[in-house]
Amino acid sequence: MNRPPNDDGSDKERKDSDESAIENIAPDTRIVTAGRNPEWTGPVVNTPVWRASTHLYDNCAELADGVKRGGDAEFFYGRRGSPTQWSLADAITQMETPKTSGAYGTLLFPSGVAAINIALLSVLKPGDILLMSDNCYDPSRGFANGLLKNMGIETRFFDPLIGGAIEGLFCKNTKAILMESPGSLTFEITDIPAICAVAKKHNITTLLDNTWATSYFYPALEKGVDISIIAATKYIVGHSDVMMGSVTTHERYWKRLRRTARQLGQVVSPDDAYLAARGLRTMGVRLKAHEQSALKIAHWLDKRDDVEKVLHPALPSCPGHEIWKRDYEGSSGLFSFIIKGDKKRAAAIVDSLQLYGIGFSWGGFESLALLIHPEQNRSATSWDQTGGVIRLQIGLEDCGDLIADLEQAMDKYKD
Ligand SMILES: *Cc1c(COP(=O)(O)O)cnc(C)c1O
How far apart are CA 197 and CA 30, in angstroms? Predict the structure, then answer.
């Protein structure tokens, strides 16, 4: 695979696991083998937890050498990680199929928000304009309207369904585009290849929050995205017990991303990296189980006459569904639906669910339900639906039980 160069330009000592000798391995095989370099794992299956701040050198000259190289995946100091973190980062890079996409490396961050915001900081400077999809995650909007604004970086929001017509919004200072597809509240699917194609023509950097699909269902770099971001907190970790984010990119962006992350002191703990790597190994089977149950439940809801609309990318009622069909390898377990009736009815339904927890986040093994307020999070488009909106994270419980629970709650609070 491609190896990001060290600070001194050499590629010596970079200890990535090489891609399998078998060409074109499927994602399910990759998920099992990726990042398991024997130099990191030793004789055991998983890369052990290397807990360390100090890394010791044999002598002064070796330490000086290490400082000069400043490479990735090389012992130096705890802030640059250990084999536990390198192995996970390498596995995530490999999930983006470096041979065909040119994925060059992955950096890990202590949350998805840190990953998104530092990726943005690495490509923007005062005076630049950022275009952000109107369905982006609320904290991404908060960063744009907060720190970025204070730094003299302007953000303009755009309709997630704009496609190649985004070119009409470009001006001299437009430097980057942040997309989230599907939006994690309202699930519009963006025509990412069309946007990336026009952005490339104008030398504008494209970033995607790929948390919903992950590279398993949507290898983002292959689709033309420059910087692929995942809130690993969700499906990679998969067990609702660790916060983490990842950013994967090409050689072109690698050095500035690494520089920004290092200057801001970003590091994840080896214990967290271990748990995330353990989660990743089963992400394929989990995603397929989430997908199956979520689809069943979405279709069940779609047939109910007290449901206004189901916002699930695999259903034709979801804006951008045709693009999902064209581009995505599958759908995951998070979607929303609009009920007939107001927010009070929606809240009463959520409150009387027995098997769904009420709380933020998603991607874990357990089901969650959330009353959401899309009208509060947009400026370029309007939300004209009057019904209450419920977002469901479908977990790994028995699907029949999850449907029965929804049915009892919805029947209890009929219009
Ligand atoms: C949760 C989430 C994030 C942020 O991840 P954290 O690890 O919670 O900081 C970013 N984007 C999307 C779409 C998310 O759902």
Answer: 28
For residues 87 and 108, what is the distance between their CA atoms, to the nearest angstrom?
A: 11
Angle 94-227-200 from CA coordinates, rounded to 5°: 120
Sign of CA dihedral 216, 102, 74, 77: negative
Q: Which residues pair with 311 in a beta bridge?
A: 336
Task: Give the Å distance between the CA of 289 and the centre of ligand 1.
Answer: 21
* Ligand 1 atom with the shortest distance to the CA of 114: 9
CA R_g for the chain: 22
CB 74 within 8 A of CB 14: yes
- Provide the whole-model pTM: 0.94
Q: What is the spatial distance between Cα 325 and Cα 243, in angstroms, rounded to a whole number? A: 31
Q: How far is the CA of 185 from the centre of ligand 1 (A)?
A: 12
DSSP letter at 17 equals: P
Name the residue among 195, 184, 129, 198 with its Cα closest to residue 161.
195
The mean of the pLDDT values for the chain is 94
Tell me how far apart the alpha carbons of residues 113 and 115 are, in angstroms, rounded to a whole number.
5
End-to-end CA distance of the chain: 58
Q: pLDDT tens-digit profile of 36-73? A: 999 999 999 999 999 999 999 999 999 999 888 888 88
Q: Alpha-carbon distance 36 to 17, whole Å?
A: 6
